[in-house]
Amino acid sequence: MAAVLFDFSGTLFRVETTESWLRAVLAGAGHTLPEPELTRTARALEAAGALPGGVEPEEIPADLAELWAVRDQSAELHRAAYTGLSRRVALPDAGLYDALYDRHMTPAAWTPYPDSARVLRTLRDRGVGVGVVSNIGWDLRPVFREHGLDACVDAYVLSYEHGVQKPDPRLFSVACEALGADPRRVLMVGDNRAADGGAAALGCRVHFVDHLPTEHRPDGLLPVLDLVV
Questions:
Q1: Closest CA to 135 of 81, 187, 62
Q2: What is the rounded distance in angstroms from the CA atom of residue 46 to the CA atom of residue 43?
Q3: Which of 45, 114, 128, 205 could form a disulfide with 123 if both were Cys (CB 3.0 to 4.6 A apart)?
Q4: Does the model's pTM come out above 0.90?
Q5: Which residues contact residue 81 at a Cβ distance below 8 angstroms, ignoring those fewer than 6 apart?
Q6: DSSP annotation string for 176-229
Q7: Angle, in degrees to the nearest 10, between helices 96-104 and 18-29
Q8: What are 2-15's pLDDT values in tens digits?
C-alpha cells in the first residue's frame, strides 16, 4: 500500500462522554445542576444525538431531517444540525447550546485510541502516506497537534472544506490526489461501513474498526500495520 486514509471520530480518536461534555460546559458557564438532574439531562442529550462524534440520534426530528442529511457539507450546517438536536433538551441557559457545540471542537474533548500513535508513527517511519478523511464541520487539525500526532499526517481532507461528504467517492479522490497515490494502492480505515465504505468505489481497500470507548478498544488499529505491505 502506498497510503492509508483514516477516519477521525471513532477510528483514531474518541470524543468524551456526554456527561463529561455537559459537566465541562456547565462548569465553564458557572451553572450547577443537582446530580440526578445532571444525569437525566446527559442521558436526554445522548438520546437526542446532540454530541457530535457521540451516539447517533435515536430519532431525527422531522424538521431537521433535510439538514441532518447534509450536515457535514459546511460549518454552518453542522452547527445548525447539532444545536438543533441539543435544543430538544431543556437547559438552564439558552447560551449553553452553542457552548456545548463549541466544547466538542476543543482538543480537551478528544482522546486518541491507545494504539493510534503507534500505528501512525509506524506508518510514517515506513514511508507510507497518511491522510485523514472526515465528515465534519470544523477544523480538527488542532486536536492532532495537541496530542502530538500532526507530524504523522500528510493530508487532511475534511468534508466541510470541500462541500462533499462521505460516502461520495470525490472526497476520497481528493485525499488520494493529495497523497499522490493510486487509489488501488490505498487503504481506507474507518468505523462506518456506509460512509467509509464509499472509498471502495475508487478501488481502495477498506478496513473497519469498531466505534468503542477507548478502554474497550486498546489495539483495534494494530491490524492495519499487517495490511500495509
A1: 81
A2: 5
A3: 128
A4: yes
A5: 64, 67, 68, 71
A6: HHHHT--GGGEEEEES-HHHHGGGGGGT-EEEE-----GGG-SSTTTHHHHH--
A7: 120
A8: 999 999 999 999 99
